[in-house]
């Protein structure tokens, strides 16, 4: 990764700016990325002893205006006058972070956190509000911060509604981000964990300190994805499973996950061409299960994909991925696809459904056409196939 560092000095702190390469997947909607940056910023602040910032529509507009301005006139910081002219009066400090080239919110936040200047801006305890801008065409990112004394001295309003009822509600916080949940009782006696907005936490619960949620960290031995499973009341159906991003894993304290026998949203299946059982995790990683691994899952029921599978001619090296065993619909199977599917063992057959041998009039070469290949065959291969009479073409 190439990095460009610049520093602006003045009455307002402006962080070092980082230009990082690495474009990749298609951009998500700017609104989604904006929300993710705000969330990750507040996760970082609360994890490291700060309080969350309030997302400001006004600051969002200012940040977006500067991201779009950079897309036209070049990558650089805005100046104090430009920002001051666009902020509602009453602030006593403001600043910004900018970046370019990061493909999503997680990556740009990781870059900012790794830079001391950016991190200082993120953690500045004088800031009370935040806005985020994102220009997807050039992957330009802007955070605008502002501090308002009125925000810092304001006391929470009186609790809305029944104070005793609010005090009876359990608040819990997961360790890997800043989200606080309220455990809401239902009329039937059940309990449901609901994410709590900052406004409700402030106004109803008066910023009451939540208890740590009961969370375990697990992964499949064959997959790199680490999941946080939070044990909300109500049993397995109420548990919350979260595949962790790298920043979330760091926030959680880099926990060593235990090996899991089963993870929610895993898909168990069996091809029609072998007795092997496979699982595809929620992260899309496929694995061929040993008996012990299937037992560890609790002998989960597998989907029978009985009309699909993998075939190999007993007399040739090629494999075929069969999409319909009944009609012979299939295609050649390459090594990369076979590997991604966790190396299912193909059924060895002398002939495949719908295949044929043929030759051209006046030419003794025999050809084979089937789901896995279409090529000339040797005399030995033709004999191993049973010496079928070839159809004459041409």
From TrEMBL:
CDD domains: CAP_bacterial (cd05379). Residues 32-155 form the SCP domain. SMART domains: SCP. It comes from the Bacteria. InterPro entries: CAP_dom, CAP_sf. Residues 1-20 form the signal peptide. Pfam families: CAP (PF00188). Keywords: Signal. PANTHER family: SCP DOMAIN-CONTAINING PROTEIN. This is SCP domain-containing protein. It comes from Cryobacterium arcticum.
């Amino acid at each position: 990764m190439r990095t460009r560092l610049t520093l602006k000095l003045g009455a307002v702190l402006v962080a070092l700016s980082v230009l990082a390469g690495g474009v990749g997947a298609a951009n998500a909607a700017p609104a989604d990325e904006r929300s993710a940056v705000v969330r990750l910023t507040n996760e970082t602040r609360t994890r490291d002893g700060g309080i969350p910032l309030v997302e400001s529509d006004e600051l969002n507009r200012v940040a977006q205006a500067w991201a779009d301005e950079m897309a036209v006139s070049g990558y650089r910081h805005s100046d104090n006058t430009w920002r001051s002219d666009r902020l509602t009066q009453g602030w006593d400090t403001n600043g910004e972070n900018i970046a370019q080239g990061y493909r999503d919110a997680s990556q740009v936040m990781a870059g900012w956190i790794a830079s001391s200047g950016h991190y200082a801006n993120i953690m500045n305890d004088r800031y009370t509000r935040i806005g985020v801008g994102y220009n997807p065409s050039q992957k330009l990112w802007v955070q605008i911060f502002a501090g308002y004394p009125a925000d810092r001295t304001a006391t929470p309003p009186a609790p809305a509604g029944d104070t005793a009822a609010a005090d009876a509600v359990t608040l819990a916080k997961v360790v890997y981000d800043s989200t606080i949940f309220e455990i809401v009782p239902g009329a039937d006696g059940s309990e449901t964990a609901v994410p709590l907005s900052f406004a409700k936490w402030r106004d109803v619960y008066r910023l009451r300190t939540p208890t740590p949620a009961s969370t375990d960290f697990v992964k499949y031995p064959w997959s790199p994805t680490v999941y946080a499973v939070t044990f909300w009341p109500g049993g397995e159906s109420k548990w919350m499973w979260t595949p962790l991003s790298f920043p979330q894993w760091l926030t959680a304290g880099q926990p060593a996950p235990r090996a899991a026998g089963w993870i929610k949203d895993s898909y168990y299946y069996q091809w029609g061409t072998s007795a092997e059982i496979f699982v595809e995790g929620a992260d899309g990683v496929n694995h061929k299960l040993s008996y012990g691994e299937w037992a560890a899952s609790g002998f989960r029921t597998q989907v029978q994909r009985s009309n699909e599978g993998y075939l190999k001619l007993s007399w040739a090296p090629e494999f075929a991925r069969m999409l319909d065993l009944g009609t012979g619909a299939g295609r050649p199977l390459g090594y990369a696809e076979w590997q991604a599917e966790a190396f299912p063992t193909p059924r060895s057959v002398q002939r495949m459904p719908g295949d044929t041998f043929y030759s051209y009039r006046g030419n003794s070469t025999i050809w084979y056409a089937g789901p896995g290949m279409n090529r000339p065959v040797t005399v030995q291969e033709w004999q191993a196939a049973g010496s079928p009479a070839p159809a004459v073409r041409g």
